[in-house]
Amino acid sequence: DGVRFDVITLFPAIFDGYLTQSLLEKAIKKGLVDIQRHDMRDWAGKAPHRKVDDRPFGGGPGMLLQVDVTVPCVEDVQKMGPSPGKVIMLTPQGKRFDQQMAEEFALCDRLVLMCGRYEGFDQRVTDILQPTEVSIGDFILNGGEVAAMTIVDSVVRLLPGVLGDENSNIDDSFSSGNRLLEFPQYTRPREYRGHQVPEVLLGGNHQAIAKWRSEQSQLRTQQRRSDLLEKQTDLPASQTDDLG
Ligand code: ADE
């Protein structure tokens, strides 16, 4: 019950190094993920030009990905798999990606990721395919490829069997059991340039350690990301206890 990803892009080589990165390579070898790349130019018009983009009607800068290239490309890719899958368009106009969305995507059997370049897609691509439009943040990337990699990366580590127990993700910041930032962590040496490891972590009192960590998480979240504390409605009581 892994996830199959289909990445539709004009620059499939951008993913080369990422796909051979150790965690992902292992997950692919174990059959937990399958990542197929598709070069949108294979759906372009006739040689020698093989155009995929054109200037916007009404004027303005940049080039748009053409509807008569993009739509057949996505439809053909959808037919290649065991199921049509969920179509996701990476765009700064999309819904903001977060850990909750990653958890939802991790339950899908197939995700088709459409990466834009230039000024984006002709609006009719969206009207016809009705993809889920997703943005990874309020900034502009040169294309959707890095955004697609971000989604693959965060979804893959949620799949059962991908991370070992030693790297368990259930306590991660923003996971459904925890919407607070993580507490600070320390390893050896106990002292470095006069900076000490907090005494409580050295004592072996697990209850005291848990209490200190929970306080640190709440303090950090309050100081750095108070916006996370505002939407607390569905949190377990243990995380809302002493928020003040
Ligand atoms: N393409 C360009 N910028 C993007 C962003 N912030 N998120 C998703 N796709 C994008």
Automatic annotation (TrEMBL):
Classification via CDD domains: TrmD-like
Biased composition (Basic and acidic residues): 224-233
Reaction it catalyzes: guanosine(37) in tRNA + S-adenosyl-L-methionine = N(1)-methylguanosine(37) in tRNA + S-adenosyl-L-homocysteine + H(+)
Keyword presence, Repeat: no
InterPro entries: Alpha/beta_knot_MTases, tRNA_m1G_MeTrfase_C_sf, tRNA_m1G_MeTrfase_TrmD, tRNA_m1G_MTases_N, tRNA_MeTrfase_TRMD/TRM10
Any one GO biological process: tRNA N1-guanine methylation
Subcellular location: Cytoplasm
Residue sites binding S-adenosyl-L-methionine per the record: 116, 136-141
Biological role stated in the UniProt entry: Specifically methylates guanosine-37 in various tRNAs.
EC number: 2.1.1.228
Protein name per the record: tRNA (guanine-N(1)-)-methyltransferase
Source organism: Stieleria bergensis
Biased composition (Polar residues): 235-244
Primary location: cytoplasm
Domain tRNA methyltransferase TRMD/TRM10-type residues, every copy: 4-231
One protein family per Pfam: tRNA_m1G_MT
Keywords per UniProt: Cytoplasm, Methyltransferase, S-adenosyl-L-methionine, Transferase, tRNA processing
Disordered: annotated segments: 214-244
Membrane-spanning segments: none
Alphabetized HAMAP family for the sequence: TrmD (MF_00605)
Family recorded in the similarity comment: Belongs to the RNA methyltransferase TrmD family.
GO molecular function per UniProt: tRNA (guanine(37)-N1)-methyltransferase activity
